[in-house]
Fold this protein.
Amino acid sequence: MLRMSDRSIAIPLRLLLVLILCSGVRLSHAVDRPNIVVIVADDLGWNDVGYHGSEIQTPRIDQLAAEGVILNRFYAQPTCSPTRASLLTGNSAVKLGVVAPLSTANPEGLPLDQRLLPQFLQASGYQTALIGKWHLGFRKEAYLPTSRGFNHFYGSLTGGIGHWDHVNGGGLDWQRNGQTLREEGYSTHLLTDEALRLIHNTDSGRPLFLMLSFNAPHLPNEAPLEAVAAYEKLPDPKRRQHAAMVSEIDSAIGQLVDELQRRSMLENTLLWFLSDNGGLNTSSFSKTTVEFVRILDRWFPDEKVPFQFLEFVRTNVRDGAADNSPLRKGKKSIYEGGVRVPSFVYWSGRLKPHHISRMITVQDITPTLLSVIESAVPDERFDGVDQWAWIEDKHHLSNSQPPDYIVKSWDGEAVFRYPWKLVTPSSGDPELYHLESDPEERDNLYERHPAIAGQLRNIQANFPRGPSVHLPLYYNLMSEDSFGGTEKHPPWTSQIK
């Protein structure tokens, strides 16, 4: 009988023990993967949150920001659909061909060859849900959120809806998993209730990915009367409505965090908060457009403009009441007020409070979150990068330069090689800004730094660009897009092919 020495047995046993322990560490990590909650506010201005000095009261947001990681230089795209496209793919909006809000008439959407964040997370065992606004295509079933990685969807498919009537462009736009709903209630309240139900009923054995995408404070300016009354001292009635909408979001986030705490989920939940673009106000538009709206007001002082598109423009110019100060301009613009937005990351007990002044963009969210859960995506090449070392305050492990970033809108294009920013307006001469020394974009350095301007022009010229998914302009001129109002045709869900 062959006998092995104690020494010969001990070595394999030690190796086996090491393998078991290593396997256990990995298994434990897999079981303890965090819940992920991404909260997106719609048209929230830089100075619309308390922790930036706003008169708007946002105590729950301020607390999370103070206890989390504040992203001082977080960049989105100038409008909603491009930001959402970049967030969910990790790729550049111009490469995706999504550079403007998608019209309700548009048969296309976010390109179907793109694999989205919820699909990656599903493959890693996550439950996935979108509650709120989609706005990435809906005319064909293949573009719906439930076809693109979300197990559960509740909310709206189009752009801005009436917060009480849930109508966009003459059609009811409110549903749960493909079934149109006629529910009474304020959109922020309904979305919050759905999120609380989801958390309460979630499978505790599997991690949760929740994207909570509020419709507010996007137009129309609508909020509960008691919320508006809290801001009666603000002189501008539109600002009072806007402030109340933001406070309702703050309350909703507080309720969400409290429910996570009650369910003993908070310490294992990573929460990322952002606005989809800068806030809307008159500065978002050119002087020519503003003057044209004033003419419309003189012609039609007490009634709607007969042509729907012109009324839509007038509503946007007149009613936006966000505050992006001290940044330049706002939503729809390539200047800082349109793209630099409030954002923070919170993870109780895991992330220590600090501020990051490094440029981080919306296209970094997907690669960063996938790195947190150690998801292997060898075939993916994201335009965004993993920023987790910076968020964890271990930036000595990642001293790389932020990737080049490009934004595009009606007023031109801007290229970032931080801290430099090249602005190419739709009309006028190019501009160059050093954002750390001049965040308000007052000092055009284009003529004084020709070499840097040349580098950024070269980046712009060679930046990958995909075919546009948008309809020609004249289709938009004939579209029914409007925020709230009378139902003129069947609900949008019934028009999906």
Notes: The first strand starts at residue 35 and ends at 41.
